[in-house]
Queue: 2 jobs
Job 1
Amino acid sequence: MNKVALITGASGGIGYEFAQLLAKDQYNLVLVSRSEDKLEHIKKDLENRYGIQVIQLPWDLSYPETPEKIYEYIKSKKIAVEVLINNAGVGTWGAFAQSDWKRESATIQINMVTVAQLIHLFLPNMLRQGKGKILNIASTAAFQPGPLMAGYYASKAYVLSLSEAIANEIKGSGVSVTTLCPGPTQTGFQSAASVKPVKLFSSKKLPTAKDVAEYGYQAMLAGKTIAVHGMKNKILVFLVRFLPRSITTHLVKKMQESRN
Ligand SMILES: NC(=O)c1ccc[n+]([C@@H]2O[C@H](COP(=O)([O-])OP(=O)(O)OC[C@H]3O[C@@H](n4cnc5c(N)ncnc54)[C@H](OP(=O)(O)O)[C@@H]3O)[C@@H](O)[C@H]2O)c1
């Protein structure tokens, strides 16, 4: 029988590419995101091309009840999830005091609470089975505070810290937790977050969602704890360790101001 992977935010961007990779490796898929029509199209395409089964759950991950609803649905179908990819993520740009609270609170719910709760729901069974893989998508934003995208940067710091700690707790169990940290990537993320590109990156060719997903997938299979995508991002993340937080915070502010 095919193994099963649960992927959030699979209707586009990096999550869509994860779905392609896992389908190719003969995983049956449970895909969650809001766009029912896109999920329907992806389901038909992957089932036809790879002979796998796809369950689409067109549910909103900003609703606090959604993680439990996903878990109960999967339990009712007697499915054991062997791979969990917490990919869905949103952000918003602008000074925190003036930002739209609805968007800030959706960021907290989707990027942090949903991620934590899905791990909390699915990890115990993986541990009982002695196998399983969890891949959480953070960002290079996880490594320092981010003025003008304060909530987003903080949410990704939470994902990184939570994931590293759990990975340590379950060492030797047969289950791994990997955190993928992409830098700016060609997806619909920026338009969804209503942000213009950062000047520093606008003239450069950004990595594709496919590049990033392939890198993250290999890191997850290898059971790595942290996977920073791209040499420049690796260098930046390394350098950040040696600079005072006040300086990195100031530099990020300058970078985020250039979106204006
Ligand atoms: N792109 C970048 O530059 C970049 C850089 C670093 C890290 N990341 C991280 O990578 C991950 C994937 O981002 P991406 O760039 O691929 O983003 P994207 O192209 O905007 O795709 C986001 C996915 O999440 C789903 N989603 C958004 N809100 C949702 C909600 N309320 N409920 C359910 N699903 C929802 C979207 O589907 P629906 O709209 O159909 O719901 C879509 O499938 C995120 O965690 C992001 O923070 C991205």
Note: The pocket of NAP is lined by residues 9-15, 33-35, 38, 60-62, 87-90, 110, 137, 139, 182, 184-185, 187-189, 192, 209 (CB under 6 Å).
Job 2
Amino acid sequence: MPIDAAGSALRELHAWLLECHSDTVDADRLLALRAEIERLATDHIPGAVIELGCYQGATALWMRAVLDITGQRDRPVHVYDSFQGLPEPGPRDPDLFPPGFLRAAPEQVLALHDRWGCTPPAIHPGWFADTLPGQLPEQVALAYLDGDYYNTIRTCLAACVPRLAPGGILIIDDYADPEINPKAWNGLPGVKAACDDYFGSPSPLQVLFGDGDLAFGRYIAPGNR
Ligand SMILES: C[S@@+](CC[C@H](N)C(=O)[O-])C[C@H]1O[C@@H](n2cnc3c(N)ncnc32)[C@H](O)[C@@H]1O
């Protein structure tokens, strides 16, 4: 079904994602990402939207749909994933998931977009260390990092922060700072550790809040906002 400007299809997609993709998507995440994507249009931030760690494509589909109803049909979406699931956790990561957990296939991303009549993203399969150096768009308006582990997030930050447009937005999932937001889910502390080590102190990251246990960090590239 095509996503149209009326927004009713977007509401339907929202409900469907919460019902069928609740393993990686929740209402706080969808709302926060929608607000950031709307901001790209109002602030005229140039560049692509990218997701590093797309799994089955649920969030990529949401971002595409929001872009489409906010007059940003021409803005490309690129997604990246090993499609082999998570790697081994490193020493800064908890032993929560076995290697290979969250394995998906590019065909699932395509099928999800097809089901909702949305333009599919450009899909870049492979480990981030191999794909990001040569396959990122020249300019990135919004990067959504959802790679779970310390080494992965370090790799993502090193590759994509230099590509952010002035005013470009980086959203880091699982970034929890219990001192600022005690409600945030803090199951993957390697994510914040990677951000702290990359950005140094004082951290330029802002903590985003939701109604539930949202753990989102936001970095805005210096520039025209
Ligand atoms: C939590 S899932 C992403 C969920 C997705 N963002 C969503 O909202 O539906 C994490 C994904 O990151 C991928 N991943 C983790 N580390 C990676 C790495 N170093 N290189 C490539 N992909 C990686 C995994 O394969 C997995 O699909």
Note: The pocket of S-adenosylmethionine is lined by residues 24-25, 51, 53-55, 58-59, 81-82, 85-87, 102, 104, 127-128, 146-148, 152 (CB under 6 Å).
